[in-house]
Amino acid sequence: MARIARGPLDTILGLRLRRANGAVQRHFGEHFADLGLTQKQVSVLWLTGDHPGLAQTDLAAALDMDRATTMALVHALEKRGLMTRAPALSDRRKIAFSLTSQGSILLDKAKAAVDEHEDWLKRRFDAAELATLEELLARIYR
Amino acid sequence: MARIARGPLDTILGLRLRRANGAVQRHFGEHFADLGLTQKQVSVLWLTGDHPGLAQTDLAAALDMDRATTMALVHALEKRGLMTRAPALSDRRKIAFSLTSQGSILLDKAKAAVDEHEDWLKRRFDAAELATLEELLARIYR
DNA sequence: CATTATTGTACGTACCACGTACAATCTCAG
DNA sequence: CTGAGATTGTACGTGGTACGTACAATAATG
């Protein structure tokens, strides 16, 4: 197979970002295959564990997602018995999410796996580089 | 709506990467809506323009994609009359891709739009920061 | 009290990424 | 030079993510 130079494409920052993200996603997927969780699903479980009673809109805002996308995630997790929904007392339009005990247990395992995954990712950088990278990335989405 | 703290989630580098990538993707999508091209489609057209005659495997390797994913992209572009395929002379298993004239014209427009998009992205950084960010990102996917 | 905004629901669309199985072709060891 | 294994392209399928739109129930506001 001929080796193709990417050439000018390598100067495209958006593409670098995409490739870096893709590599991390792939590793995450392999690492979490046994838990059966994706990055987004872990994020949802994590936030719900930290803030029991939150609603669709809270999740969507915290994770920069569409409301429809958010609900697709929540529904899948609910179907697996990891999350439950109950009418919110304060506002009868809202539905409060929380974890089931099964969801809490899985989240704990997931957090441990996230630590390993993050170690794999972060071992490329020293402390100063890591702080720099985090700050530069934050400028993009904030 | 209650404002939910992301808390420990903000220390997850993978999530920052994902959010940054998401923000860039969203801007790209809006910016390219009139051309009807996605980031990946532009990448494929660009590489094909630079290396006429390349094959499925070349594209997949250069863009870190699965062969099946690559072909889905190529087929869609072929159906729109932007790319053509012809049997390769050197290896009769291979199929050589190239751009149609219509594809070349669209690619030129896309390159101009990419420049604008990249300006939007890069104006967050000075030259030194940009070089740093590019280098740090490259460590992840290389 | 009437209008407007918010929240959740229920559809649909599109893109991307990967897996598997298969046939044609090439390569290389023997 | 022949047969085994590797490579290439094809044709399916699955799942996750992301967004749009239209609608009903409820809350907030004038």
Automatic annotation (TrEMBL), chains A, B:
- This protein's source sits in the domain of life called Bacteria
The record's keywords, sorted A to Z, are: DNA-binding, Transcription, Transcription regulation
Domain annotation HTH marR-type: ranges: 10-142
Q: Which SMART domains match?
A: HTH_MARR
InterPro entries in UniProt: HTH_MarR-typ (IPR000835), WH-like_DNA-bd_sf (IPR036388), WH_DNA-bd_sf (IPR036390)
Q: One matching Pfam family, short form?
A: MarR
Q: What PANTHER family does the database record attribute to this sequence?
A: TRANSCRIPTIONAL REGULATOR, MARR, TRANSCRIPTIONAL REPRESSOR OF EMRAB OPERON
Q: What is this protein called?
A: MarR family transcriptional regulator
Q: Which species is the source of this protein?
A: Sphingomonas rustica
